[in-house]
Amino acid sequence: MKVPSSLAAVAAASISLLEGVQAHTFIHSVYVNGVDQGTFNGIRVPGYVGGPPNGAANHPVKDLESMDMRCSRMGDQQVPYTIQVRPGDNITMEWRHAARRAGDRIINGAPAHKGPVMVYLTPDPPTNNSFVKIWEQGKISQSPTPGPGPKGTGRWAMSDEILDKRGLLDARIPKDLKAGFYLLRAELIALHLADASWKEDKHRGAEFYIDCLQLEVLGDGEVELPEGVGFPGAYDWKDPGILYDVFCSVEDPLPTPVPCPTTYQIPGPPVWTGAWPETTQVKVGEMKGPINATSWDTWIIDSVVTSASAGRVLGSATYQQQWSTTYHTPMPTPMPTS
User: Cα–chain-centroid distance for residue 19?
Assistant: First the structure.
């Protein structure tokens, strides 16, 4: 049964209004085989939108044609610490709304943020066809109850699985992967406004929460990643996994004059056959690093970067992502101990 358009519109409008004053989610820390690498270490934290104290790094990307689709805002900027891993290691990403504490909501607006979760791997630096999908999860089960609320949209990877696991997302480094420097691209897609395209309506459209991790794979593996896809470019505005009415994706035997999807096609390429067929959750150990994000002095709004110091704005300049074609080793940062 199709949810009445007026009801769905009211629900979507309420969520949209909430998002206008709130922020969402991004990765705060990474665990390797359950060992915390430290708050923000190895993570290309998305550029902050707005200055202190009210700016945030957890707003979504919505423009499929933007370079922000690669590693989010200012994703071309290296961070000092690179996480060392070996083939077979388990990577646990800790998604948070605002802080690394038990009361954090993981993602604002949950559990309304229904959608898939995907993990890609690429050599660092990436190219226009180097992102290889190594894990994905989309719609897990249907709901027999129509309606705009969480019970009427079924169970999804983003809003249900990650919330149940308190923001933890697991992936594994492929078996026998060749040593070298890589970026792991993690992506959550929220579909609550995806019944219309952002290209056609700037108040709607799917929301993409993207973070990239800097990895150095060690060992003597000889397996190279195959050809992949590029970001931007991997997704299209009319892809069925991007343009999707999540509020009517329910089981209902009653006929309807308007087609209503009851299945979901995860966007992008299939998972690489060289990836692990299963990813199990690993128990994580002691948290290392600060609970809250430290103060920042640079932020970006509409491709303009502003810098400040001690609360005083120093200047602003137009910013455009500039991805190098060769790898540059970042300055090292010591591993945190507490």
Answer: 17
Higher-confidence position of 317 and 153:
317
pLDDT digits (tens, 9 = 90+) for 1-51: 333 333 344 334 433 433 443 459 999 999 999 999 999 999 999 999 999
- Rounded to two decimals, what is the model's pTM? 0.89
- Spatial separation of the C-alpha atoms in residues 297 and 114, rounded to whole Å: 33
CB–CB of 291/156 below 8 Å?
A: no
Query: Using an 8 Å Cβ cutoff, are 262 and 247 in contact?
Result: no
Cα 171 → chain centroid: 13
Closest residue by Cα to residue 221 from 259, 263, 285, 173? 173
Question: Within 13 Å of residue 127, how many CA atoms lie on the same side as its CB?
Answer: 9
* pLDDT at position 15: 39
Helix residue spans in the chain (DSSP H)? 5-21, 68-71, 162-164
Q: How far is CA 169 from CA 182, 239, 243, in A?
A: 18, 25, 25
Phi-psi domain of 106 (left: phi exceeds 0; alpha: psi -120 through 50; beta: other): left
Tens-place pLDDT, residues 65-90: 999 999 999 999 999 999 999 999 99
